[in-house]
Amino acid sequence: MKKLLIALLAVAMSALSAGPALADDAFPNKPVRLIVPFPPGGPTDALARRLADNLSTSLGQTVVVENKAGAGGNIGSEFVANAAADGYTLLFGTSGPLAINVSLYKNQGYDPRSSFEPIIRIGHLPNVLAVNAKIPVHNLKELLAYAKAHPDTMTFASSGNGASSHLAGVLFNEMAGTRFLHIPYRGTGPALNDLLGGQVSMVFTDILTALPHIKSGRLNAVGLASAQRSAALPDLPTLDEQGLKGYDVSVFFGIVAPKGTPAPVVKKLNAAFIESLKAPQVEEALKTQGIVRAEDATPEGLASFIDAEVDKWAAVIKSAGISLD
Q: At 142, phi and psi to the nearest 5?
């Protein structure tokens, strides 16, 4: 009897030790939730839903997009950070919740570097520095000369205090030695309307938002506020090319899971996302939204990128004394 009990105990312990491995091998065996920390209808939501359709095929399980908006993306991000670390709850994050907010909010409830397992960096949305067409500048050199000749008159609009469009202007002032005055608005729409009306001088915004007005001649494009040129405006040099070395305020998109998600599950998710991103309809969606695919699609690449972005924006926010708490 004693030998039998020992044998049964050994079998039980073996089963327990094999449990996680078997679970990892079976992943996924139920629907996966992709949390978008912003309201429905926006560009992040649209891209997440397009990607989820193809991801369902790659994983062989339904991928459900859920919107949990609020606090600049913090509510949905904290929800994922506190979810079970099993790969069934993922975050479709952007620059705000994955890099900027940690320095803006004192009580955020999660940390982008320690609360998640990186899965993949999807890509980035290039921004452009655009000025009202009545201001006779078309490149960085002309802008800086105009600002010097018209001191304390240049203003830049943003979608709100602490928004990426605000921080883009703060970083520009620091790197270029300018004193452009920040004018915050409640959203990109009102900011753009006043820019077109001449109430403010310039804006740092995504290229798709500015493109129709650049083509119509109502805005002048000074330069791309990203590391590489954009296919939407292939002849427009970046600000980096024009002398503002290292200036890049693109909005990035990345997928993360709760900290502690098993490595085999992370690997499966990464492979599924890579496969999904190759689908023609997803490639078309990226192109339509002006999003440039990330060259490094590894989890390690996203981890390093988040580290660098957190440090970059922490320095900008500290120097400007910005806080949203």
A: -70, -35
Distance CA(317)–CA(233), nearest Å, equals 30
Average pLDDT over all residues of the chain:
91
What's the CA gap between 70 and 90, in Å, rounded? 17
Strand-pairing partners, residue 67, are 36
SS (H, E, C) 16-34: HHHHHHHHHHHCCCCCEEE
| Fold annotation for 32-124+251-320 | D-Maltodextrin-Binding Protein; domain 2 (3.40.190)
Instruction: Decide: 101 and 313 in contact? Cβ < 8 Å.
Output: no
Instruction: Indicate the domain borders of the chain.
Output: 32-124+251-320, 127-224
Q: Which of 217, 305, 244, 257 is nearest to 116 (CA)?
A: 257
Q: Is the whole model's pTM more than 0.70, yes or no?
A: yes
Does position 11 have pLDDT exceeding 90, yes or no?
Answer: no
Task: Give SS3 for 121.
Answer: strand
With a cut of 50, say whether residue 18 has pLDDT above it.
no
User: What CATH code would you report for 127-224?
Assistant: 3.40.190.10
Q: Are residues 65 and 34 in contact, defined by beta-carbon separation less than 8 angstroms?
A: yes
Residue 21 pLDDT more than 80?
no
